Amino acid sequence: MRSSVGLRGFAHKATPGSFNVTDRIEGLAQRARRRPRICLVPFGAVFILLLMLLHPARGWAAAYGSLNGVVRDDSDRPLPGAKVVLESETHATLEEQTDSTGRFNFPKVAIGHYLLTISRREFASVSEPVTVEAGYFPFANIVLMQPSKLSEVTVTASRLPPVGSMTPITIVSQEDIENTPGASNANSSAMITDYVPGAYQAHDMLHMRGGHQTNWLIDGVEIPNTNIAENLAPEIDPQDIQTLGAERGSYAADEGDRTYGIFNVIPKSGFSSINQADLDVTAGNFGQTDDYVSVASHTSDFAYYTSVEGNRSNLGLQTPQSQVIHDNTQGYGVFTNLQYKSSDQDAVTLIAQLRQDDYQIPDCTVPLADDPYCIGQFGDVQSEADNFALLSWAHTLSNDAVLTSSIFYHFERADYDGGAGDYPTITTYHHSSQYEGAEENLRMNFSRNHLDVGLFGFAQQDQADFNLAFTGNSSPTLNEMESPSGGLAVAWVQDTFEAAHWLNLSAGVRESYFKGSITESATDPRLGATVLVPRLDWVLSAFWGKYYQAPPLETLSGPLVAYATANDTAFLPLRGERDTERQFGVTIPLQGWSIEADYFVTQARNFFDHNPLGESDIFLPITDEAALIRGRELTVRSPAFWPFGQVHLAYSNQTADCSGSITGGLVVPGTACGNPPIALDHDQRNTLNLGYNANLPEEFFMGANLSVNSGLSNGFAPPSHLPSYAVLDLKAGRNFSRDLSVSITALNVTNRHLLTDNSLTFGGVHWNNPFQIYAEMHYKFHY
Asked: What is this structure's pTM?
């Protein structure tokens, strides 16, 4: 607005020694587990084609990876009949036996952290912590040894050489969410901002890598949303997430038109519970509470997980001054994940959500004329809904042949209602969008190629109701109702070629067709490579690619166009954003630690942003002629089972500039970027988060996160930036039993409360949230 990648290919040899590797790793694992936890003719044809393609083929959703390998003895002979168990952090297991050639294969594994255990009678078992991610195809070489030989020589710890993907990914587990201060709250984005470089809140909205638009994928399927920064809460309650894979740029052709970020969510499942209920209750200052209950269980072929959540607080949106006034928020949500395995080859999943959030818009205590940081809003509210349903079918033909097909529905609404005390206008803007679509993804392995062919599409219908009343009846009320429709169809092909054990080459192309008030198409090639440096085990990655983002459907006509014209304002048709990205990265393993660094450049045409319509508080999308975003990023993560706790660091040094005129949407005089380029209002040069979670003696635990921000662009005095500031969040508690834990969370413990953003969105400029403290009780019981 103006003013440690997927389970890496590795070799493990249980060499003889002075201590038992399996016992040691299992002991660390157990210690870690004790932590608290349009209808369009083109689209119609594509939709029919999607349904016709439901035939057997190898396929995975984007939130899934695979793991396969071979087990041998120390004489290099294959070991058939070895038991291979892959155990998740929630203790859910996948189990295989090696075939006559010693091979095993888990063709569809949800992204996340696991413990891989291989055992066979007369041999010492081997256990290794592993990470599985989408878009990579690891192969594990395992060597088992007889116990008699183990006593003859010294055991040496295994070395797992990493294999990086071209897409930088941060995996956040449910344990991370539970232990990070404030991250489990329904309206919190801390599970992203505390772990992902270049992710931060600006004017109550999540920004990432200098842009607004991000994609949410549930169980690997995109939940589409073409609107720009309307709904404030995250797509899904953090407490319903089992694993979050946050991807940032360098996407293969099967993923993503949202250049700036993709959030892959694996929701909680009943297959890891038996008649178990979780109750979480909080209470703190500002009258806040966030209460949650879930039930989960399974039989041999059916699992269910269902949760209900409710929250309220007197501190909702960021305030336009230090005093917190008229800032109540409340919301509730229902979520379910139903899974049915009719056979070993077939599984059906239904995931659905109903969610409602209501926000008061914070007041200013003085009139606009006396305080330029406030605008005349008194009694305004925003009401939001975000509902979706996703039905998926997975069919397994053999160990390396899986089909996944999905259909989905998404409805989201953001209604803004102005109060009677607003000046000079009282605004009502009710906007809703609904989407219906399907996705088909086929992946095939042959020779050293991993081929991915897919289709995705949706139809969209919007409803927008504008009402603009002038205080004191100084002018007639303006009303307008718009019902635009449109749709998007996408096809892609992607191939990853294993040229050598140290070199992967990736090439793909994504074809997009959009129809709304305008019709557009785009052909986006994407190229990438990863190189494993011998001996060092460093992984170098490189990527170049193009993206197309379909535009929102908003438009203006009739009386609002006349009003805009009278105020020297116009509304131009919106076109899609087209981006070119290049990125270079390196992954460095260091005694179990993972260090990842990257440099990226994004050049955007028709960059999506938003502008206010006069003093109306209606914020409509715009496209800037060009934007240039450059950044350097660093992430550091301690070993998965490090006995001293978990350390995570995310740092970004970034610039986000725009240039040229406004090419679409609401054209307001004086808001164009011009030349030379100027910083966008959400430009923040340096963002750092340092976190630490630890188990303490006597079953105590703690979590901490230090966030250091260099300050957003100073809209009143370009090209300067607002002052830097730091925020410290803490959490401490105790496990009184396996089922009961109590904790206290303090956010912004130093009460560093100051102006952090002076872009006029949702009631004026923004101060960061003041000191908050709340107590939490987490109780598990069986029914």
From this structure: 0.85
